[in-house]
Amino acid sequence: MKLLTHLISVRQRPLLRAFGCRYFAASTEEYNKRNYANNISEYNTVIGSLTAQRRPYLLKDVYDDMMLDGVQPTRDTFSSLIVGTMKGSRLQDAFFFREQMKAMGLVPDVALYNFLISTCGKCKKSDQAIRILDEMKKFEVKPNGQTYVCLLNACAADGRLDRVYAIVRDMTAAGAGLNKFCYAGLITAHMNKTPLADDTADKIIEFVERSKGWSSVEASTASAENVMMAVTEEELYNLPTADFANRRGGFLNKQLTEYHVALHACADLKNVEAMEAILEMLRKDGKSPDVYIMMQTTRCYLHSGDLDRGLKAFDDYLTSGKLPAMELYATVIEGAMLGYTPRGMQVAQDMLVSMNSRNYFLNNKVGSDLLLVAAGEKTGGYTIANYIWDLMRARNITPALPAVEAYYNGLKDREIPEDDPRLLLVSRIYDNQRLRFGRQ
């Protein structure tokens, strides 16, 4: 009876809506057809699939179903669950799985503790990250070099410059050299410190220069545990390049990590002078910009209000014979839309047309981000927002809820008949998404 009551109470959970509810009153054949996993191997496959799809909000439901089925999770299962929560920045779920793991007599190993520290960093909870290190010592789990780099970057994400420098002092006192991820963390810490210091740009340049002698100890090759879990170091340390770490075709030169983080920071600061100084350092090092560096270069120019130099940087890159990428086009489009000037909006439209004609297509994330910006246009014909929407729908992609909501509100603010086909379609999709995500 307890099991049946629990089943009734969870029938409307997201996972069961996604995979199909369990009906124990049905025939064995029907049950097997609707039940998405029956043993630990199948459950591990489901967990891996949800993590790959970036649907971490369903992982706890999978675990609940596993318990209902009487399937005993293994250490690998908990590892996969915690990695999934890390990738989804779901700190409470990560702590839940840690406690469940310990309740079953399984103490997390150093790799799992590193994932937990990384999750704290993604959620800007450096206090929790410090507590995890203390817990490791309590359970006699020896931290490794990667643990301290995770901790450094977790504190950096929270803007705790004091803690970052303390970790650096401890590392150097122990004879451990700083690697490129440590210097990336130092840059991030200065960027996230509140209030922002006047010498932040100078510090960024200084750390790029100092990073040229970074230690090869604890080198940047991923550990076996990370490879097994498909976690890149860029993601583990919460770097801005995390989403691009597995891209090929010269998109991301992993030897330029400190340059990536520094130029991303310069773009956020809208500091063209510092950005150009770092590019000159790159040139003197005999290195060529990759696509990510070009994204940050054009973003810095555009966000500082220099549309002409942003376009020139983009054109020079194309004329050099190097292949662009959809994200590089999107960077120019987003930057051109800032301020919603007539010229900027025309540039954005031309870029969209050029991108599409060269078979570079928007994905869900980038398309949603661009639609969210374009939907903020208060005057004009709403041409860019409509075009982005049409490009995504032509590929059967539904934008994220915030973008759909902004686009819907923008359409309603214009003099459009209530029976307009576009408005009706957007309204229907918006209503469906609100129901799906529980918003009224």
UniProtKB/TrEMBL annotation:
Keywords: Repeat. Transmembrane segments: none annotated. The keyword Repeat applies. InterPro entries: PPR_rpt, TPR-like_helical_dom_sf. PPR repeats lie at residues 39-73, 74-108, 109-143. One of its GO terms (cellular component) is mitochondrion. The keyword Repeat applies. PANTHER family: OS05G0145600 PROTEIN. This is Pentatricopeptide repeat superfamily protein. It comes from Erythroxylum novogranatense.
